[in-house]
Design brief:
By secondary structure, this protein is mainly alpha-helical. It is built from 9 helices and 4 strands. The protein has 2 domains: 40 residues, no CATH class; 201 residues, Collagenase (Catalytic Domain) (3-Layer(aba) Sandwich), CATH 3.40.390.10.
Length: 261
């Protein structure tokens, strides 16, 4: 927020009318600044992201959550949305990032961002046992390749994101319920969707947040490179692991498929 600091930050950057040259120049600046930071104390005031990104990020070394302005836009966020839609979309994303602090990677970092063991052995064993359920569950999801071959999701590689999805959904639903209880009244129903309860609309909004269409070629590439599960699995997995979802939609089985927290 300091214009003099911004000027100093970009002092060595020389821009021209050539886009390729500008890309290379900014890349050189980024690399040079990275090397210059070696051996120095961590500057917790830096913002090492593109401000135009549409994303939300948990940084274990900083023990920080960053919610970018780009993701706080319609249809994920709108100030006129009723609370159950806001919590179902933006709330679940925020809860997802918070849960990363306690997933299979984040659990190794303490409150100061140090890599250490801060859980007792019983907690670690319980965590590993419950995590195995997520690995097995998501390994059963598949995507179809262009030739029709079913390619399974890697439950191990996507474990952290799957845990965060489940935790984010549970955290956000609980926060929404608490907000409603403190307010002592429900938000109005959406016109034309009165057949759904507000709790059901919470989960429908969560599903809409991740709903997408991905061509088979891209789906195969993502399943091999992305730490996240395919979008459809990010919907089906967390709701199968949600007691609140099963109760909201009156499912005959209330027990979640997997439950960590």
């Amino acid at each position: 927020m300091d214009p003099l600091a911004i000027q100093a930050f970009y002092a060595s950057l020389r821009l021209t009318s050539s886009y390729p040259e500008n890309v290379l120049a900014t890349a050189r600046l980024t690399v040079a600044q990275g090397y210059a930071s070696l051996g120095k104390p961590v500057d917790r005031g830096t913002f090492p992201f593109a401000t135009t990104a549409v994303n939300a990020v948990y940084n274990p070394q900083m023990n920080s959550v960053t919610i970018f302005a780009g993701i706080q836009q319609f249809p994920i966020y709108d100030r006129n949305f009723p609370a159950y839609l806001l919590y179902g979309s933006m709330g679940s994303i925020t809860g997802h990032e918070l849960t990363h602090g306690f997933d299979n990677q984040g659990r190794h970092f303490d409150a100061s961002g140090n890599f250490t063991v801060w859980w007792d052995e019983k907690s670690i064993q319980q965590f590993r046992s419950r995590s195995d359920c997520f690995v097995d569950q998501y390994s059963r999801f598949t995507v179809s390749s262009p030739n029709g071959t079913a390619i399974p999701v890697s439950g191990n590689r996507t474990l952290g994101e799957n845990i965060a999805d489940a935790g984010g959904l549970a955290l956000s639903f609980g926060a929404w319920r608490r907000w409603e209880d403190e307010r002592k009244r429900e938000d109005e129903r959406l016109p034309g969707l009165e057949q759904f309860s507000n709790a059901q609309l919470f989960f429908l909004k969560y599903a809409q947040t991740w709903c997408s269409i991905v061509p088979p070629e891209a789906a195969v590439d993502l399943i091999r490179t992305d730490a996240h599960s395919p979008a459809f699995a990010r919907i089906l997995g967390p709701v199968a692991n949600s007691r609140d979802f099963r109760e909201a939609f009156h499912c005959p089985v209330k027990e979640p498929t997997c439950e960590l927290w």
